[in-house]
Amino acid sequence: xxxxxxxxxxxxxxxxxxxxxxxxxxxxxxxxxxxxxxxxxxxxxxxxxxxxxxxxxxxxxxxxxxxxxxxxxxxxxxxxxxxxxxxxxxxxxxxxxxxxxxxxxxxxxxxxxxxxxxxxxxxxxxxxxxxxxxxxxxxxxxxxxxxxxxxxxxxxxxxxxxxxxxxxxxxxxxxxxxxxxxxxxxxxxxxxxxxxxxxxxxxxxxxxxxxxxxxxxxxxxxxxxxxxxxxxxxxxxxxxxxxxxxxxxxxxxxxxxxxxxxxxxxxxxxxxxxxxxxx
Length: 279
Description:
This protein is of the alpha/beta class.
């Protein structure tokens, strides 16, 4: 992967104050300064710093392509915890959230999203052989399994909807911590995206990922989609991003960008942010 920036350059200054022009003027300012700061959450394969201190992941790699097309030559990472991405965007700590964030109605009340660049089912990380036979959130509830998921993850609500009490969940920073909790026997199951689950267990001798499944929302199977988030005032930047994203989807280049990170054709999507926001 091309080097997109270094960790040391990520957070040396805060971004400029919020735009006041109709539609926002952030795109113009980013073009003038030649760099966009990306909020990432250290989650493989969505956005993370690799062992060489380089920014990579599906969202940063896609951001580099799109922003170059928009006249912004460089991207820089601003690492934070997943649960701090939306607050950090609002408080000007970075310009855009580039972390594969799921688009849902609650988040759509706080930020605006580009159309999703992927769709995703859920999966569980369980002990080898899946001794408790956990394949759905309903299984977790019915079998009294000890449940974990990540900070700010949509999977919290899916488990709650199935009847699991949030106060009984173990909330950990990310999927690596979730894997460790399963391997150590502190929980029976960690819930995350199908992609992160299957990637993180590849080198584990104690855990495996279950078959992907659609969680139930309102009693109906639900497919998630993830994308880039922007401050609500920055509709001009969001719309320009969408134009380039649609071109990448149509040409097939989007899949070529995402494929090295474990994405398949089944995870490409024509869903819109409006649909996922509930509108």
